[in-house]
Amino acid sequence: MAVPRSRILDLMKVQSRIFSTIFNPTAQRLGNKVLRQRLRGPTLAAYYPRRVATFTDLKKLYPSHEMYDETEEDRLEHIQIAKSRGKGAPKKKKSAAESRKKPGKKR
């Protein structure tokens, strides 16, 4: 003897009310599992340290003062050495409009 579907649905309604769950008789994917979870934003924000003032920030704040950034000078020197050996970054392409104006050699 089979139990009528309406009776089962009534039982599911009562069950969801008692256990504080969502009544979902069609078993659709509603995302309730994800929505019940705690929010992660505050935890992630607290994990990373706050950003402190960098050398470039100080340089922008006080443009009249002359400052020496050793790491930036080292970086520029390294780039200059690489360029002199032919290992630097390639030159940037000009805009598309300029490249179309100049007729190239066709072979």
What does this structure look like?
It contains 6 helices and no strands. The model has no long low-confidence stretch (mean pLDDT 87). The chain starts with a helix and ends in a 6-residue tail after the last helix. The longest helix is centred in the C-terminal third of the chain and has 15 residues, at 70-84. It has helices at 5-18, 32-36, 41-47, 55-61, 70-84, 96-101. With 107 residues, the protein is mostly helical.
Number of strands: 0
Fraction of residues in helices? 40-55%
The helix/strand class is mainly alpha
**How much strand?**
under 5%
Parts with pLDDT < 50 across at least 5 consecutive residues: none
Short descriptors:
single chain; 107 residues; mainly alpha; elongated
List strands and helices in order, with pairings:
Layout: H1 5-18, H2 32-36, H3 41-47, H4 55-61, H5 70-84, H6 96-101
What is shown here, in short?
The chain has helices spanning 5-18, 32-36, 41-47, 55-61, 70-84, 96-101.
